[in-house]
Design goal:
The complex is a heterodimer of chains A (about 280) and B (about 325). With about 280 residues, chain A is an all-alpha fold. Chain A contains 11 helices and 2 strands, in the order H-H-H-H-H-H-H-H-H-H-E-E-H. Chain A is globular, with a radius of gyration of 21 Å. Chain B folds into 2 domains: about 240 residues, P-loop containing nucleotide triphosphate hydrolases (Rossmann fold, 3-Layer(aba) Sandwich); about 60 residues, Alpha-Beta Plaits (2-Layer Sandwich). By secondary structure, chain B is an alpha/beta fold. Helices cover about 30% and strands about 25% of the residues of chain B. The chains are: A mainly alpha (about 280), B alpha/beta (about 325).
Chain lengths: ~280, ~325
């Protein structure tokens, strides 16, 4: 397995699109931070004295990317390239005879998650450094009470809350890539699935008034609410209560949400392995 | 070339009592291998009941027109496609239950497919890592296939012939016991074809490897293969050694006058065909004196008598062309 992972890493190291998607987040957030520092330096932003929690919150933006639809689209694009690229290059024929198919897919999952972890941790680190730089350059004082322990606690909770949406986004795009054998088709399917999920979770109560019998099970069954509910439990210690017309409230335990998310991820990842294992590579 | 390794009768294929550690045990065995695409009712049968056996050290040619099922068979052999029915055994192991046996197989399919954004060398490094091997053989192989100078160039800039040669290097990377080459001379120039021919011979003669190759260049196959199977419309229509295949169509070409007298003198004993002013008599070389006696006895004047031996291309066309015409 380690050999397959090592081969996968060696291969993707030379692929510009992969690296673009890895570097996209650190570069994008650095640009945003530099613009904010610039705004502070040229007087477009009033000096402020945020509380430690607010100061840290500014450095955790990257961990909210997977909870956001656009962030999920970018993750899907990366996964589509990782998994469907081999069909485009016609290179499964080169490597499939030499490794169990399951280990090739496992290596793709492992490298994908590893690269996301590198990208997100690097971005979080950059945001912390740039926030300190912002304070130093603009004359803002670093808030009293800001400690490494508090920084670690907030970031680790935010990172943990980002795990489920990343895994779900990876699951959508990977199974679509293996089934369609096309990067574009995989991306389109993943975007459609993500969008439907986000619409249901975002506009559930409004849609419920028109299609109650469809929206209610979808709201409970799709991953969207469970991702938000789990994130709320991790960050705030209590779940998300969502009111629906007629006085109905969705108030689920974290174990229920975790179980449903695990079922989704296991089913979609399992389908990816199973589809690839049975697939004819012509 | 090792011509001693003969065909293993397919009937032995399923016998569990056969010793598989025998030096002459088949390297590759296919029994009733079939592949149908699509649903059973309206499915397309790409390969039907292919049964053959390749012995150690043999160079085995797999011939057939386009769409005959060569590539599908080869893909089943290296685990890219699952057979609908039948069995593929490599080194005595069932491929489905022992896929690790493919570690002893090197293959070149579709002219070599590589990561276009990586150099030739880096592609081989990726493959070596995938196989769990070191990179120590890479430089030697690149040198052997004539790509040492271009090894650091990205594959997307390679010509078809260069990709083909890189494909051969990839097939040999794991020092395999069985080398499967799908159209190995495609895209090569004349010098490249000669080099490839020498390489294939060397694999068998100098290194004792077994080579299974498909090709549409029959002249090349005739020069390098010990045995061939001809596949048409998904079925094996002929399997034999090259010599036997050509001998089956032996005959004598005769120029004698009057041609009608000569034909009448010979037709009572052998099948005789007219070919312009000449006659083609389905008689063996050993029967030539008897042919001469009959012609002289009948009063015909004999001007020329020569063995009529068709080349592999003619034999191939005679076997596959009628079906192609039907299609």
């Amino acid at each position: 397995m380690l050999e397959a992972l090592s081969a996968e890493a060696l291969k993707m190291r030379g692929h510009k699109a992969t690296w673009f998607l890895v570097w996209l987040f650190p570069i994008a957030f650095t640009i945003i931070m530099v613009m904010m520092i610039g705004a502070g330096l040229f007087g477009f932003e009033a000096p402020d004295q945020p509380k430690p929690a607010d100061w840290i919150e500014n450095t955790t933006m990257i961990w909210f990317v997977p909870n956001n639809a656009v962030g999920r689209y970018l993750i899907s694009a990366f996964v589509a390239v990782m998994f469907a690229g081999e069909y485009g290059w016609n290179t499964w024929k080169l490597i499939v005879p030499h490794r169990r198919r399951a280990s090739l897919i496992a290596a793709k999952y492992a490298l994908t998650l590893l690269l996301f972890a590198i990208s997100f941790f690097l971005t979080a680190l950059l945001l912390i450094v740039l926030n300190f730089a912002d304070d130093a350059l603009t004359g803002d004082k670093v808030p009293a009470g800001l400690t490494a322990a508090l920084l670690w606690d907030t970031h680790s909770k935010a990172a943990l809350a980002a795990v489920a949406p990343v895994l779900v986004a990876v699951a959508y795009a990977s199974v679509a890539a293996i089934l369609t054998r096309s990067t574009i088709a995989a991306l389109v399917i993943a975007i459609v699935a993500t969008t439907i999920e986000q619409i249901v979770v975002g506009f559930g109560p409004q849609l419920y008034t028109k299609f109650p019998s469809i929206v209610w099970p979808l709201y409970h069954g799709l991953p969207g609410h469970h991702i938000a509910n789990l994130a709320e439990f991790i960050r705030e210690g209590e779940g998300l209560k969502r009111g629906f017309p007629g006085g109905r409230i969705v108030d689920l335990s974290w174990t229920t949400s975790l179980a449903i998310l695990v079922a989704w991820i296991a089913a979609l990842w399992g389908a990816t392995f199973a589809a690839f294992r049975r697939q004819d590579i012509n | 070339m090792n011509t001693a390794a003969g065909s293993i009768p397919p009937s032995e294929f399923m016998d569990p009592g056969i010793r598989r550690d025998d030096a002459n045990a088949p390297v590759l065995e296919l029994a009733g291998l079939s592949k149908t695409y699509g649903r059973r009712g309206g499915g397309v049968r790409a390969v039907r009941d292919v049964t053959l056996s390749v012995g150690p050290g043999e160079v085995y040619g797999f011939l057939g027109p386009n769409g005959a099922g060569k590539s599908t068979t080869i893909r089943m052999l290296i685990g890219l496609i699952a057979p609908t029915s039948g069995e593929a055994r490599l080194f005595g192991e069932d491929l489905r239950s022992h896929p690790a046996v493919l570690n002893r197989v090197g293959s070149l399919v579709d002219g070599g497919n590589f990561y276009p954004f990586l150099s030739g060398r880096r592609n081989l490094e990726v493959l070596a890592k995938t196989q769990g091997r070191g990179a120590d053989r890479i430089d030697g192989l690149l040198d052997q296939v004539g790509l040492a100078r271009d090894s650091k160039r990205k594959v997307k800039g390679y010509s078809t012939g260069m990709r083909q040669r890189l494909g051969v290097a990839a097939a040999l990377l794991g020092d395999p016991d069985l080398v499967i080459l799908d159209e190995p001379v495609n895209g090569l120039d004349v010098a490249g074809i000669q080099e490839m021919r020498a390489l294939i011979r060397s694999l068998a003669v100098d290194h004792g490897k077994t080579v299974f190759l498909s090709s549409h260049l029959l002249h090349e196959v005739q020069q390098v293969c010990d045995r061939v199977a001809i596949i048409s419309k998904g079925e094996i229509v002929r399997e034999s050694s090259i010599a036997e295949l050509l001998r089956q169509d032996d005959g004598l070409r005769i120029e004698a006058v009057p041609v009608e007298v000569a034909e009448a003198a010979l037709a009572s004993r052998w099948a005789v065909e007219r070919d312009g002013d000449a006659l083609v008599v389905r008689a063996t070389r050993a029967e030539a004196p008897e042919v001469v006696r009959r012609l002289v006895g009948a009063g015909a004047d004999l001007f020329r008598l020569a063995p009529e031996q068709r080349n592999l291309e003619e034999v191939f066309l005679s076997i596959t062309q009628p079906e192609a015409d039907d299609a």
